[in-house]
């Protein structure tokens, strides 16, 4: 108890709260800008926090992390470009809502459900921390492979109108993820002798190109305005705060998505991007009106925004209980903890229990902080949409270009973002869905590397995927998921 | 009068020379934000900029095991306003076929640290000492799985060198970085890892993992009880290291200013604490000796890697 | 129409993928090598796109889809070319100037009045320069 009180007061120390707010604000800016990711933000700020006392430094990092994941959803909703990869799934329904003239409400849902997800994630850390971490450790190469397959089975659901085109697009995405050094032998694949291609094509520029620049090119082409003022009264733009009834009706979806987010977050190597996509797909499966998903469903948006913030609690669980990174940001945080003199891992709960409480309370405060400023910022940002159309287009273009360049200071990435933008335009022209492409880009490498790794471990025995319990469950789930979504789609599309 | 003129000229000359540095220095980091290289670079530069009185801005350029960043550094103007971090891969990329340069193409400033490979198993496994482990592997060739951080990585080379020195046969399992390999070890999916002590430190302290041996010349001050393979009679020493470098052809005056400033930063209490917290062995070498060392490593990898990877 | 184009393009791509991946070792039956997945993917793309091609030809004869001619081709192509040029000229000239010109031209092409575009692109390029170049220390030229 004394430890708790000590930890509590470390967290609510006024200076710590100021740094938390500072972090929240920086996270908002960094998360909203496409290209600048939460990982980058935390990594760049970490050495700066060494000059602060641990609780203040920690407050800043946790503030940045939580608000960057939340605010990635803002650009996903407003300009169809995920601010961070965690918000890919939020583009599906978020941007559809913006097109319907409901940008304000979509942003409000993003604030509320990011908060709910974040809090549920922290609760999981408090309540089931150790068992959850143990469960995450049982994931070996075989389980990672079947998890990737389960994620890929989502492809049908994110395919939009035509399953066939969706699956082709998925394989195209997969083929692009093959570029670079082979994960097991290190042989060069499709590198054309270019040094820049050895590590493969970076995912973020491709994502920004497909969603951001591709969308702008297509809007210019199709004379389409971001907000079709005809369909809905413009006053809808202004309403940001969802009603109690709306929030209540979305709660079941949020609970399911939070659960998915927490589990995926806890598994090392699977992060918020995968969590958002899987949660979106699974909630679609149980939804009463699945046909609305992707057309501006509040439920779909709530699912993806809840899951990606719930992921943080899961990732933090693995990091604190095992000392292993649960995702890319926690990998950086481990370094920060060590510098503060705390070694993440089971010993932390014994030797630095008050520090554990500080972390937990700061996580809760960080969620409260972005809940508080989120509505205000969201309301302010909807004004962006009322600027002249061509100004909006150029803003998206230049932010996408510079954001992609900023990751690596690489002119090559600029070329990648341009090519992906062109491809994104062409795919929209041909009515080819983009969801499967990014899905395969994220999960393809995970599937290939882990399948081959698992076969090395099992000495070439394929039975390993069916004899290990978790792996078997995932295989069965993938088959069910594929069958049901294919049949449902057939039914709704009239056999197409 | 004449004396005055000489004095004046002298003052002018010192003023002109002391003019370096008068604008921000760009520091190229060859790895993504958050890793060991990145944190080392950001910590030492944040101290050095206080000494040099100009800001040092860190820039991450990733890809091709750091070859892209090092190429960029090599081709930058040698005016002292661009410098960078160079890891062990400086001596490896040519052998791996990723790039066509080696340590001889840079003005090396100093070596900062070394991290030896650590043969690590689960604490609840049957092996208490490295001898027991080697005997077991010898008795069961081709069944013991050892994780590393990726094909052609320094920790992969470590496992290969271990095989060669002990005359054993292992199954190598490459992971995407060292952390996933350690996770797989903790979860019981592989038998051992040969990665840095930094990565396994938390597991060792919490009693989940055990370091059997280090692949260094001398025992590490951080793990004084862990034997080295050398002292047990196996001639193998594999370590990652890191240092600072400039493009070739930097003015000696400028070089000296930087070398002094960074040496001071290196010796500072903050930085020494950083190194020991992260499980890295402080291993300062001045530019001259560092160059000698890096070139000897380069020659070793040029011979070892093509044989090991069949390239 | 779109389906036809798309299927033809992916068929061509899959054949290219086949040729390239045939240079990579496939591995043995239960230990796939570097070439296994590329070949598998090329094969899947080929089969599925052929299927799509047949379907689209079938549908093509039955009904005409809305043609592409309704779009604003000139504006779109000019924007795409401008962005391409900007990427090609990266590192040459001056960052602020290049960015300003790109933004100005796109705004004019997509229908802004020139003075609105002037103000808009000047504000935008300077803010990008300050935000990324000065705060995030991105390397410009």
Write the layout of secondary structure elements.
The complex is a heterotrimer of chains A (496), B (311) and C (141).
Chain A: H1 2-12, H2 14-32, H3 38-49, H4 54-79, H5 88-99, H6 103-137, H7 141-152, H8 163-177, E1 180-181, E2 188-189, H9 203-222, H10 244-266, H11 272-286, H12 298-322, H13 328-339, H14 346-351, H15 353-382, H16 389-408, H17 411-429, H18 435-457, H19 464-467, H20 469-492
Antiparallel strand pairs in A: 1-2
Chain B: H1 2-17, E1 25-29, H2 36-52, E2 56-60, H3 67-74, E3 82-87, H4 93-96, E4 106-116, E5 118-122, H5 130-139, E6 145-148, H6 154-166, E7 171-174, H7 178-186, E8 192-195, H8 197-205, E9 209-214, E10 239-247, H9 252-267, H10 269-277, E11 281-286, H11 287-309
Parallel strand pairs in B: 1-2, 1-3, 6-7, 6-8
Antiparallel strand pairs in B: 3-10, 4-10, 4-11, 5-8, 5-9
Helix pairs in contact in B: 2-9, 2-10
Chain C: H1 2-21, E1 27-28, E2 31-32, H2 36-62, H3 73-88, H4 95-109, H5 114-135
Antiparallel strand pairs in C: 1-2
Helix pairs in contact in C: 1-2, 3-4, 4-5
Task: Characterize the structure shown.
The complex is a heterotrimer of chains A (496), B (311) and C (141). By secondary structure, chain A is mainly alpha-helical. Helix content of chain A is 73%, strand content 1%. Chain A has one domain. A two-stranded antiparallel sheet of chain A has the order 1-2. In chain A, helix 6 runs parallel beside helix 10, helix 6 runs parallel beside helix 12 and helix 10 packs across helix 11. Chain A is globular. Chain A starts with a helix and ends with a helix. About 2% of the residues of chain A have low confidence. Chain B is of the alpha/beta class and 311 residues long. Chain B is built from 11 helices and 11 strands. Chain B starts with a helix and ends with a helix. Chain C has 141 residues and is mainly α. In chain C, strand 1 and strand 2 form a beta hairpin. The chains are: A mainly alpha (496), B alpha/beta (311), C mainly alpha (141). Chains in contact: A-B, A-C, B-C. At the A-C interface, helix 8, helix 9, helix 16, helix 17 and helix 18 of A face helix 1, strand 2, helix 2, helix 3 and helix 4 of C.
């Amino acid at each position: 108890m004394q430890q708790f009180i000590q930890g509590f007061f470390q967290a609510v120390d006024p200076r710590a709260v100021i740094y938390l707010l500072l972090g929240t604000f920086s996270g908002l800016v960094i998360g909203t800008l496409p290209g600048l990711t939460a990982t980058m933000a935390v990594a760049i700020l970490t050495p700066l926090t060494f000059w602060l006392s641990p609780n203040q430094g920690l407050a800043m990092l946790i503030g940045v992390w939580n608000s960057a994941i939340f605010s990635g959803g803002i650009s996903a909703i407003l300009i169809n470009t995920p601010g961070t990869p965690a918000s890919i799934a939020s583009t599906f329904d978020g941007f559809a809502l913006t097109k319907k003239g409901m940008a304000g409400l979509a942003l409000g849902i993003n604030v509320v459900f990011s908060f709910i997800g974040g809090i549920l994630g922290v609760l999981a850390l408090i309540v089931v921390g150790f068992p959850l971490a143990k469960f995450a450790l049982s994931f070996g190469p075989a389980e990672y492979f079947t998890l990737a397959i389960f994620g890929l089975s989502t492809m049908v659901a994110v395919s939009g109108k035509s399953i066939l085109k969706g699956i082709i697009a998925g394989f195209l995405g997969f083929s692009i993820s093959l570029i670079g050094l082979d994960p097991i032998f290190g042989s060069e694949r499709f590198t054309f002798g270019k040094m820049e291609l050895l590590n493969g094509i970076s995912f973020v520029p491709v994502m920004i190109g497909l969603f951001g620049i591709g969308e702008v090119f297509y809007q210019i082409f199709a004379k389409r305005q971001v907000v079709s003022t005809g369909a809905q009264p413009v006053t809808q733009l202004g309403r940001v705060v969802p009603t109690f009834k709306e929030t209540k009706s979305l709660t079941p979806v949020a609970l399911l998505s939070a659960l998915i987010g927490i589990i995926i977050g806890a598994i090392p190597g699977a992060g918020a991007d995968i969590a958002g996509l899987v949660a979106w797909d699974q909630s679609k499966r149980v939804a009463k009106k699945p046909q609305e998903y992707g057309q501006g469903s509040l439920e779909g948006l709530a699912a993806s925004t809840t899951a990606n913030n719930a992921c943080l609690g899961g990732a933090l669980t693995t990091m604190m209980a095992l000392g292993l990174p649960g995702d890319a940001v926690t990998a950086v945080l481990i370094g920060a903890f060590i510098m503060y003199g705390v070694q993440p891992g089971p010993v932390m709960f014994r030797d630095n229990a008050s520090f554990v409480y500080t972390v937990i309370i700061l996580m809760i405060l960080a969620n409260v902080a972005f809940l508080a400023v989120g509505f205000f910022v969201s309301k302010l940002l909807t004004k962006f949409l009322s600027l002249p159309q061509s100004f909006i287009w150029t803003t998206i273009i230049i932010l996408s270009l510079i954001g992609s360049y900023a990751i690596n200071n690489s002119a090559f990435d600029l070329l990648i973002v341009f090519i992906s933008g062109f491809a994104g335009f062409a795919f929209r022209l041909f009515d080819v869905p983009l969801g499967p492409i990014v899905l395969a880009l994220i999960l393809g490498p995970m599937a290939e590397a882990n399948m081959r790794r698992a076969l090395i471990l099992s000495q070439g025995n394929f039975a390993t995927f069916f004899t290990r319990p978790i792996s078997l469950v995932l295989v069965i789930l993938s088959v069910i998921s594929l069958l049901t979504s294919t049949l449902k789609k057939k039914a709704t599309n009239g056999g197409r | 009068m004449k004396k005055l003129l000489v004095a004046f000229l002298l003052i002018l000359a010192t003023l002109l020379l002391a003019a370096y540095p008068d604008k921000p220095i760009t520091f190229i980091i060859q790895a993504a934000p958050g890793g060991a290289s990145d944190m080392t670079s950001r910590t030492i530069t944040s101290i050095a900029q206080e000494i040099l009185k100009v800001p040092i801005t860190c820039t991450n350029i990733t890809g091709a095991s750091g070859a892209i960043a090092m190429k960029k550094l090599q081709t930058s103007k040698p005016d002292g306003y661009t410098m960078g971090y160079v890891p062990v891969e400086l001596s490896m990329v040519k052998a791996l076929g990723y790039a066509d340069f080696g340590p001889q193409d840079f003005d090396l400033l100093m070596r900062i640290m070394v991290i030896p490979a650590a043969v690590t198993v689960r604490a609840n496994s049957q092996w208490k000492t490295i001898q027991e482990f080697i005997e077991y592997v010898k008795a069961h060739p081709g069944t013991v799985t050892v994780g590393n951080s990726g094909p052609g990585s320094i920790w992969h080379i470590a496992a290969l060198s271990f095989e060669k020195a002990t005359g054993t046969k292992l199954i190598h399992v490459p992971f995407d970085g060292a952390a996933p390999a350690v996770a797989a070890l903790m979860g019981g999916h592989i038998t051992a890892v040969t990665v840095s002590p930094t990565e396994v430190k938390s597991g060792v302290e919490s009693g989940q993992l055990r370091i059997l041996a280090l692949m260094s010349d001398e025992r590490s001050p951080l793990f004084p009880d862990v034997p080295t393979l050398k002292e047990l009679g196996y001639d193998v020493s594999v370590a990652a290291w890191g240092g600072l470098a400039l493009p070739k052809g930097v003015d000696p005056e400028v070089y000296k200013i930087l070398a002094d400033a960074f040496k001071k930063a290196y010796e500072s209490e903050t930085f020494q604490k950083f190194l020991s917290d992260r499980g890295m062995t402080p291993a300062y070498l001045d530019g001259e000796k560092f160059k000698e060392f890096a070139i000897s490593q380069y020659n070793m990898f040029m011979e070892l890697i093509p044989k090991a990877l069949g390239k | 129409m779109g389906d036809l184009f798309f299927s033809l393009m992916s068929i061509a791509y899959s054949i290219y993928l086949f040729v390239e991946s045939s240079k990579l070792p496939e591995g043995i039956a239960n230990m796939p090598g570097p070439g296994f997945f590329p070949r598998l993917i090329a094969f899947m793309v080929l089969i599925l796109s052929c299927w799509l091609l047949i379907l689209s030809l079938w549908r093509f004869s039955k009904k005409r889809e809305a043609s592409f001619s309704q779009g604003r081709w000139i504006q779109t192509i000019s924007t795409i070319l401008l962005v391409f040029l900007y990427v090609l000229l990266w590192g040459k000239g001056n960052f602020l100037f290049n960015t300003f010109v790109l933004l100005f031209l796109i705004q004019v092409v997509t229908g802004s009045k020139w003075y609105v575009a002037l103000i808009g692109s000047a504000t935008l390029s300077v803010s990008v320069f300050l935000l990324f170049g000065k705060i995030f220390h991105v390397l410009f030229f």
